[in-house]
Amino acid sequence: MPAVARTPRERWVEAGLEALARGGPDAVRVEALAAELGVTKGGFYGYFDGRPALLSEMLDAWERRCTEEILARADAEGGGAAERFRHVGRLSFSEDLHRIDLAVRVWARHDESVAARLRRIDNERMRFLRTVFATFLTDPDEIEARSTLAFALAIGRHFIVADHPGYTRLDVVRLAGEHLLRPS
């Protein structure tokens, strides 16, 4: 009798992240994911002890993708601090990553353990930004202000629906980023 191919663990995590982005943590249901993947839910329990284990692994995957992998790729691409800032910006502006990031932020408002993880990740992101701005600024207030503005732009750009005559939304985000990189 031939072996039955199992749905890889990563596909369950990916399907969970997509469900999270679409409908929040309540949309991450084993039965719904199995149906979406076209498999039975039995394979799920070969990988996970239950839904909480999947949710935890989804957060691990989100963290790796949106922080660790992006910073590692920016380091590998090299360049000075401003170029690393641009690399991180380009890598983190993926719509898929942003959708998941926004869903995690909403989830964190209702789950303290998710909020604690998000706080840790946001602190890591802010450390990166402070390091970048400290390479050409000395005023701690200005470093903190620019870091906060850059972070607010990265997170909040999704919510800005204003028109920018003569510019695309991406053009405006790039202009703002370049403005933040100007010396005092």
Task: Describe the 3D structure.
With 184 residues, the protein is an all-alpha fold. The chain has a single domain (9-180), classed as Tetracycline Repressor, domain 2 (Orthogonal Bundle), CATH 1.10.357. Helix content is 72%, strand content 0%. The chain has nine helices and no strands. It has helices spanning 9-23, 30-37, 44-47, 51-77, 81-92, 95-108, 112-134, 140-156, 169-180. Helix 5 runs antiparallel to helix 7 (112-134).
What is the N-to-C succession of helices and strands?
HHHHHHHHH
CATH class categorisation: Mainly Alpha
At CATH level 3, the topology is Tetracycline Repressor, domain 2
**Silhouette:** elongated
Compute the number of structural domains: 1
Number of helices: 9
Distance between the termini: 72 Å
Mean pLDDT across residues: 91
Beta-strand percentage range: under 5%
Radius of gyration: 19 Å
Q: How many strand segments?
A: 0
Which CATH architecture? Orthogonal Bundle
How would you briefly describe this protein structure?
The protein has 184 residues and is mainly alpha-helical.
